Amino acid sequence: MDIDYNLVQRAQMLLTLDHPLSQVKDILLREGYPQDQVTELIEATEEVLNYLVPPEYDENKVGIDILHPGEKAQDRKPSVDILIDKTNGRLSLLTPQYQETWRVANEVRKAIKTQRAIYGSYLQ
Protein backbone atom coordinates (compact mmCIF):
# COMPACT_ATOMS: atom_id res chain seq x y z
CA MET A 1 0.00 0.00 0.00
CA ASP A 2 1.15 3.51 -0.75
CA ILE A 3 1.22 5.69 2.35
CA ASP A 4 0.51 9.41 2.01
CA TYR A 5 3.76 11.39 2.23
CA ASN A 6 2.08 14.02 4.44
CA LEU A 7 1.10 11.26 6.87
CA VAL A 8 4.70 10.05 7.09
CA GLN A 9 5.99 13.60 7.65
CA ARG A 10 3.40 14.28 10.36
CA ALA A 11 4.24 11.00 12.13
CA GLN A 12 7.95 11.82 11.99
CA MET A 13 7.34 15.24 13.49
CA LEU A 14 5.24 13.78 16.32
CA LEU A 15 7.89 11.15 17.07
CA THR A 16 10.65 13.77 17.20
CA LEU A 17 8.54 15.62 19.76
CA ASP A 18 8.83 12.47 21.94
CA HIS A 19 5.20 11.39 21.66
CA PRO A 20 4.78 7.66 22.37
CA LEU A 21 3.86 5.58 19.35
CA SER A 22 0.34 4.83 20.65
CA GLN A 23 -0.31 8.55 21.07
CA VAL A 24 1.02 9.26 17.55
CA LYS A 25 -1.50 6.75 16.19
CA ASP A 26 -4.37 8.40 18.09
CA ILE A 27 -3.35 11.90 16.96
CA LEU A 28 -3.07 10.84 13.32
CA LEU A 29 -6.50 9.19 13.39
CA ARG A 30 -8.06 12.27 15.03
CA GLU A 31 -6.51 14.44 12.32
CA GLY A 32 -8.41 12.41 9.71
CA TYR A 33 -5.71 10.29 8.08
CA PRO A 34 -7.01 6.96 6.70
CA GLN A 35 -7.03 4.24 9.37
CA ASP A 36 -5.52 1.56 7.12
CA GLN A 37 -2.55 3.79 6.24
CA VAL A 38 -2.04 4.89 9.85
CA THR A 39 -2.16 1.28 11.07
CA GLU A 40 0.32 0.13 8.44
CA LEU A 41 2.71 3.00 9.21
CA ILE A 42 2.55 2.42 12.98
CA GLU A 43 3.08 -1.34 12.59
CA ALA A 44 6.08 -0.76 10.31
CA THR A 45 7.50 1.77 12.77
CA GLU A 46 7.05 -0.66 15.69
CA GLU A 47 8.84 -3.35 13.71
CA VAL A 48 11.80 -1.08 13.04
CA LEU A 49 11.96 0.11 16.66
CA ASN A 50 11.93 -3.48 17.91
CA TYR A 51 15.11 -4.13 15.96
CA LEU A 52 16.83 -1.18 17.63
CA VAL A 53 15.66 -1.70 21.24
CA PRO A 54 16.51 -3.36 23.55
CA PRO A 55 20.23 -3.83 23.04
CA GLU A 56 21.48 -7.35 23.21
CA TYR A 57 23.61 -8.23 26.18
CA ASP A 58 24.46 -11.33 28.15
CA GLU A 59 25.84 -12.27 31.57
CA ASN A 60 29.11 -10.50 30.72
CA LYS A 61 27.46 -7.10 30.30
CA VAL A 62 25.60 -4.76 32.63
CA GLY A 63 22.99 -2.29 31.45
CA ILE A 64 22.34 1.03 33.21
CA ASP A 65 18.99 2.77 32.88
CA ILE A 66 19.02 6.53 33.53
CA LEU A 67 15.96 8.61 34.40
CA HIS A 68 16.45 11.74 32.30
CA PRO A 69 15.02 15.17 33.22
CA GLY A 70 11.45 15.50 32.09
CA GLU A 71 10.81 11.76 32.25
CA LYS A 72 8.33 10.46 34.75
CA ALA A 73 9.30 7.32 36.64
CA GLN A 74 5.72 6.09 36.70
CA ASP A 75 4.56 4.05 33.67
CA ARG A 76 8.04 4.29 32.14
CA LYS A 77 9.48 1.37 30.24
CA PRO A 78 13.05 0.59 31.30
CA SER A 79 15.67 1.07 28.64
CA VAL A 80 19.42 0.72 28.63
CA ASP A 81 21.39 3.96 28.30
CA ILE A 82 24.87 2.62 29.08
CA LEU A 83 26.17 -0.89 28.50
CA ILE A 84 29.24 -2.01 30.47
CA ASP A 85 31.33 -5.00 29.42
CA LYS A 86 32.36 -6.80 32.64
CA THR A 87 35.37 -8.47 31.04
CA ASN A 88 37.22 -5.38 29.86
CA GLY A 89 35.34 -2.48 31.50
CA ARG A 90 34.41 -0.83 28.19
CA LEU A 91 31.36 1.39 28.15
CA SER A 92 28.96 1.74 25.25
CA LEU A 93 26.77 4.84 25.31
CA LEU A 94 23.44 3.97 23.74
CA THR A 95 21.93 7.42 24.32
CA PRO A 96 24.88 9.79 23.85
CA GLN A 97 22.53 12.64 22.96
CA TYR A 98 21.66 13.08 26.66
CA GLN A 99 23.99 15.01 28.93
CA GLU A 100 23.06 12.76 31.88
CA THR A 101 24.35 9.72 30.00
CA TRP A 102 27.78 11.34 29.76
CA ARG A 103 27.74 12.31 33.44
CA VAL A 104 26.87 8.80 34.58
CA ALA A 105 29.39 7.29 32.17
CA ASN A 106 32.16 9.50 33.60
CA GLU A 107 31.25 8.43 37.16
CA VAL A 108 31.24 4.78 36.12
CA ARG A 109 34.65 5.19 34.46
CA LYS A 110 36.04 6.71 37.68
CA ALA A 111 34.63 3.82 39.72
CA ILE A 112 36.10 1.23 37.35
CA LYS A 113 39.47 2.97 37.44
CA THR A 114 39.42 3.01 41.27
CA GLN A 115 38.48 -0.67 41.42
CA ARG A 116 41.29 -1.59 39.06
CA ALA A 117 43.76 0.39 41.16
CA ILE A 118 42.63 -1.35 44.37
CA TYR A 119 42.15 -4.87 43.09
CA GLY A 120 44.99 -4.69 40.59
CA SER A 121 47.53 -4.54 43.43
CA TYR A 122 46.03 -7.76 44.91
CA LEU A 123 46.18 -9.58 41.61
CA GLN A 124 49.87 -8.94 40.99
From TrEMBL:
Superkingdom of source: Bacteria
Protein name: Uncharacterized protein
Species of the source: Desulfitobacterium metallireducens DSM 15288
